[in-house]
Design goal:
- The complex is a heterodimer of chains A (110) and B (111).
- Chain A is mainly β and 110 residues long.
- Helix content of chain A is 0%, strand content 51%.
- In chain A, the strands form two sheets. In chain A, strands 2, 4, 5, 6, 9, 10 and 11 form a seven-stranded mixed sheet that branches.
- In chain B, strands 2, 4, 5, 9, 10 and 11 form a six-stranded mixed sheet that branches. A five-stranded antiparallel sheet of chain B has the order 1-3-8-7-6, with no helix packed on it.
- In chain B, β6 and β7 form a beta hairpin.
- The radius of gyration of chain B is 13 Å and the shape is globular.
- The termini of chain B are far apart.
- Classes of the chains: A mainly beta (110), B mainly beta (111).
- Chains A and B meet through β4, β5, β9 and β10 of A and β4, β5 and β10 of B.
């Protein structure tokens, strides 16, 4: 079954804890992306990776970190330095022009 | 940076009605995509359309790159069309895949 999976669907963490969000794709796409969505807003780009072992900051990278050790996986860590981490996080992948999205993870920091 | 403005912000329709959603952008673009976000948060890619016109069933889109706008047409709307429609663009000369999203048009289709 091909697609993009994100886990978990809902995640609760205490303030001050780092948390890692998973994103996996079996579509053989080279590029992968992480976005953040706040209520009533559009998506904003956090980090993206065009190829394994390489990634670039997006518009709101502060307080986040990523790795791209495998083509299929692009995990996002929300660190304690992120001032307002509660949001809906969406991962996407792309073979070139069009982007395809996973189902998202809703992170709530208490 | 490039600005992306979508209108209207909210739209309520009766089932069967037609609608037009607009996306204006402030600079030349390499890439323009339309997405539908369903009430559960899943985004579906509707069109990749940096210029020209495309159709897919009851949906069609037109981008006039020289005038910096794109239109999404929904005909014979159904309740399943409800959700938020986003336009996203990549600035010409920008990093590939670095999409800037508008704030969306929230569509509610009533039975």
């Amino acid at each position: 079954d091909g697609g993009i999976t994100q886990s978990p669907k809902y995640l609760f963490r205490k303030e001050g804890q780092n948390v890692t969000l998973s994103c996996e794709q079996n579509l053989n796409h080279d590029a992968m992306y992480w976005y953040r969505q706040d209520p009533g807003q559009g998506l904003r780009l956090i980090y993206y990776s065009q190829i394994v072992n390489d990634f670039q900051k997006g518009d709101i990278a502060e307080g986040y970190s990523v790795s791209r050790e495998k083509k299929e996986s692009f995990p996002l860590t929300v660190t304690s330095a992120q001032k307002n981490p509660t949001a809906f996080y969406l991962c996407a992948s792309s073979p070139g022009e069009k982007q395809f999205f996973g189902p998202g993870t809703r992170l709530t920091v208490l | 940076g490039i600005q992306v403005e979508q209108s209207p912000p909210d739209l309520i329709l009766q089932e069967g009605a037609n609608s037009t959603l607009r996306c204006n952008f402030s600079d030349s673009v390499n890439n323009l995509q339309w997405f539908h976000q369903n009430p559960w948060g899943q985004l579906i890619n509707l069109f990749y359309i940096p210029s020209g016109t495309k159709q897919n069933g009851r949906l069609s889109a037109t981008t006039v790159a020289t005038e910096r706008y794109s239109l999404l047409y929904i005909s014979s709307s159904q309740t399943t069309d409800s959700g938020v429609y986003f336009c996203a663009v990549e600035r010409a000369g920008g990093s590939q895949g670095n999409l800037i999203f508008g704030k969306g048009t929230k569509l509610s289709v009533k039975p």
